[in-house]
Amino acid sequence: xxxxxxxxxxxxxxxxxxxxxxxxxxxxxxxxxxxxxxxxxxxxxxxxxxxxxxxxxxxxxxxxxxxxxxxxxxxxxxxxxxxxxxxxxxxxxxxxxxxxxxxxxxxxxxxxxxxxxxxxxxxxxxxxxxxxxxxxxxxxxxxxxxxxxxxxxxxxxxxxxxxxxxxxxxxxxxxxxxxxxxxxxxxxxxxxxxxxxxxxxxxxxxxxxxxxxxxxxxxxxxxxxxxxxxxxxxxxxxxxxxxxxxxxxxxxxxxxxxxxxxxxxxxxxxxxxxxxxxxxxxxxxxxxxxxxxxxxxxxxxxxxxxxxxxxxxxxxxxxxxxxxxxxxxxxxxxxxxxxxxxxxxxxxxxxxxxxxxxxxxxxxxxxxxxxxxxxxxxxxxxxxxxxxxxxxxxxxxxxxxxxxxxxxxxxxxxxxxxxxxxxxxxxxxxxxxxxxxxxxxxxxxxxxx
Length: 449
Ligand code: RNT
Ligand code: ZN
Description:
Order of helices and strands: HHHEHEHEHEEHEEHEHEEEHEHHHHH
Shape: globular
Low-confidence stretches: 1-18
Number of strands: 12
Bound molecules: L-rhamnitol, zinc ion
CATH topology: TIM Barrel
Largest sheet: 8 strands, parallel
Strand content: 5-15%
Number of helices: 15
Helix content: 40-55%
Structural class: alpha/beta
CATH architecture: Alpha-Beta Barrel
């Protein structure tokens, strides 16, 4: 055991099929090596004024909201036979996607058992369980999510929520809350209202406030003649959705804008400016999705601006490749930049971090694990950067030293610190999680038709 370091004692997570002591028993050598390497790394960081023990403690308290839709290619369980639509596209046909709520829950439990920390599940309205009965989206109620709530409670997971404004006949022409037809608008307003109530029920059942995020696909393929009217209709519709006050301890709302989608290349009603104004004037959270801006525009730079005007924001951490392609989150400079902003600005208490991607070309459980571990890794990377020194030289106008130190810090012994974090959280160290995913694939996923 590393002296004075956080102990590797495992705080038995109900959802974790392997306790740390099981994992340790199987790999005493790995434990010893991980601890030794951490001891050296900790010393090296201490020379730069960085307290890695403190960083690990802070990281341990971060919860990421993991999106349910990576598990089944944004399918949901309504069986409407409707195309995904809304400009969303999932590619790949890797075998083993979850076909039922139970399969999705079991896959999710597998995934979180391989990710250090305690996290949340982000559900979409189309994952309702209606017991085979057709329940329209404007009729959804908390009882259609009873199983999700009970399961989340017993696994000590928080729940977040999203209205589903796509994959539905009333969204087929690419307009929902800003639709020119008032009947269709009304239907979607009612859906929005009901989802907030479901979010509040989640918050109440679990004792952790739910974030209900609203994103709509509304837009036009070609240049509109009138950009104004749909936006005017959208403001009104949103005000109707949000009219009822809900205790923020139970549910808070975010609104997510976008630059373009498939079929809405020329105009998106809910653009960034639209929602930034809306969020500030209506005291809602804005949700910044990393794939929803011009390809060279990062969301990292926006965080310290929007948090001047909003007490809290949400993130959809994603990875666009050439477009809003929703690739699995990898350890890119963009991801690190987001994490650095969150840590440097001490914003972690004001930002709800969610993931948003869907890749059907690889094992879906692995996709969750890779993205979530990367998000946490990037946060840790930011937490152990020699920030005091960097700030000092910057304040002195010594940009040469700032650049030199930033570049040198890339080769600090970061890996052992991350490995030790996984070890002490009861999660697999290094790529050993992959063996567990492969076993699960063999025994469970490959048996699905
Ligand atoms: C779409 C938005 C939205 C969706 C999910 C499924 O561009 O990013 O967040 O990905 O609601
Ligand atoms: Zn998103």
